[in-house]
Protein: Cell shape-determining protein MreB
Organism: Sphingomonas horti
Amino acid sequence: MFSFRSRRRSFGAPDIAIDLGTANIIVAERGAGTIFNQPSICCFETGVSTNLVAAGSEARAMIGRVSGPFRIARPLRGGVLSDMAAARELIRFATRRAGGAWRVRRARALVGVPNDATQAERRALTTAVHDAGLGHVQLLPEPLMAAIGAGLDVDAPRGRMVIDCGAGTTEVVVISLGAICLSSTARIGGDTLDEALLEHLVRRHRFQIGRPGAEQLKLELARLGAADEARDRAVTIKGLSLAAGLPETLSIAADELLHVCEKHLQAIVGIVIAALEHTPPELSRDILDDGILLTGGGAMTGLLSRRITEATGLEARIAAAPLDCVAHGLAQAL
Ligand SMILES: Nc1ncnc2c1ncn2[C@@H]1O[C@H](COP(=O)(O)OP(=O)(O)OP(=O)(O)O)[C@@H](O)[C@H]1O
């Protein structure tokens, strides 16, 4: 069982907090608050040596538009580190503006990590943070940090269920007395929904769009899906017609694409139900009274909270700033 308070005592005051997510990286510095919040993306020029050309928002604008020696890289896949060089360079880039006195003695860093990350995945993340120029690293579980960042009193002797819906992972945890009592993680999230929409368009309409286009489509569907009357509307998508081999604008009923989204949401609901089945009775009673808290970017679609409530009968509440909960929790730990 992870206990936040016991781990903190042996670490001393940290200087910097890093929420390195599959989609976004947020860095907070003690005394200065958030100093960086941008997409987790790098663009490298590969040649004799590999150089970072751009990172964050600038690199995101390059997706699908680079060729030759340029390579777009994302440090994480499915919530865990998959590209060491990209992680190191992105963390270095994101922390370069930090100006604390710790620069002289190398920062102590708090870094969020999925609760089910393996020892090898934890070691890789720690190495990437060290290689980026930071000193002592402490890894903290993202769903617990999300709960703290959302304002839950995690130290109370009360069962709290939190679902952190990221781009690469969905984590369902039950927290009591400052510790995670039960945890279930699936490597699904906003990214897998983007991919499902891409595949649907190719299979059903022979129409190709890029990853940023798929994410934009998902965000539009999230808006439309929240209002039942909007389901009849059509969405227009710009991309490449594979049949004609030409750029085209495709118009599709929102309802058809919302079916793809619903499949994804049902997979998340399935994880929540499985976690509830394994929750001890006293904690279940607390969750019955307090409901479930949703954090992470994927929680922002009102559809997910609605489907969870329909399936479980429990109130599902979306945190005030879902995208920032983990970073806020880590910043509080600073
Ligand atoms: N309004 C919205 N509706 C649905 N999804 C959204 C919305 N806004 C953002 N997202 C999605 O949320 C995801 C990013 O969330 P978040 O920043 O919490 O993930 P992350 O921490 O980078 O990922 P992970 O924790 O899995 O490594 C992206 O897939 C993004 O498209």
